[in-house]
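Write out structure tokens for Tripartite tricarboxylate transporter substrate binding protein.
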Amino acid sequence: MIKLAIASALVAGSITAAHAEYPERPINMIVAYSAGGGTDIAARTLAPFIEKYLGDDASIVVLNRPGAGGEIGFTELAQSKPDGYTIGFINTPNILTIPIQRKARYSLESFTPIANVVDDPGAFSVLPSSGIKTFDDLIAYAKENPGKLTYGSTGIGSDDHLSALEFERMTGVQLKHVPFPGNADVRTATLGGHIMMASMNISETIADVHEGALHALGQMSNERWDGATEVPTFKEEGYDVIMGSMRGIAAPAGVPEDVVAKLEEALKAAVADPEFQTKAKEQHLALSYMNAAAYKAELESLDATFRELWETTPWVQE
């Protein structure tokens, strides 16, 4: 019996030691959108600082898994082994709206939220040569040319798509939706003149606005984001459209609590790091940190809101 007790203690000790050594190998960070978009930029800017605060020569590999409005990447994350070696960005509203609008291989319960990093207001932007300078111009063109004003988004049920639907409902115009794998693709299509308008987040628009390559009509926030103070809000222009994308880190459901705690601690320190704050500003990241508990509560609240919206105003017509 004494030998058995000693053996049990040794096994328990080895398990504790294994957890204490996390991470022992590289961590994959899944980004459910294409390279060069806002989520990808956030991931690649943040990853070295998570490595720094995880310590023990931690290594994070960013993997782009674009497609289906984020569903491909979200599904891969949800179905990964819950050992802490696969984490990823999850984006609202897509992470919530996809399982509402169609049968998906994941749900909100498939994830362990760790921390939110970004809360990025939506925006409408056009080429300066388009002749559209104001919302009045946009509405006039759309009414004179029903269904001909094309706009790009990151997919059906995305914040970009839902905000455009709300704008259509509010103004009585008819726009033509063109979905893309990620905001980088929306930007390219807009700059190339393949679509007339980009519906994408303000942080992903503002660099082109500053360079004169795009003209932002408005941002979908209660107040102007401090990284784009020259761009009016939709509310200021008379259109009460509030929409954006929260981008945070999650792991598959079932990850050990001590691993989650270590990741949460590292993320908190990473986001607060002055060097990261500087780099985030340079990359136009709209930072909005939430710890695991607050982030989980916010996701659950949003999920309930979108489910209620779907019951009254479905954004996909059968």
